[in-house]
Amino acid sequence: MDVDSGKKHCSFCGEQGETGKPLVGGLGAFMCGDCVDHYVESVASFRRTGEDNPPPWRDMSDPDVLGKLSLIVQTGAQVDRFLVEWVQLARSRKLSWAEIGKALGISRQAAWERFSREIPDDGRAPQAGTA
Prior knowledge:
By secondary structure, this protein is mostly helical. Helix content is 49%, strand content 5%.
């Protein structure tokens, strides 16, 4: 799986990651250090006071809300790429399309149709520019 932070972005603020600066998280969602710091403080504040901070979209202007839509699409695409990497991992372990389909709640055929073009039969990573 690709662990280069420079090819990912923070799922919370949308900032592009940087090679050599870790993004933490997993299962397709990643968080930059600034967001980790912010949310650590938010959770600590909630534990101290019992009061939750209002969601950030409550005070956003309409243009700000519209501006976030592309970041949400970007996060969805990142999750989709991460799913492909996990299916690739499953295939490299010789797990069948039937097992993968069952885990995804879809048929073997649907799993194969969705992922087989991106994952060679032997489970190896596709060559650059082929996926």
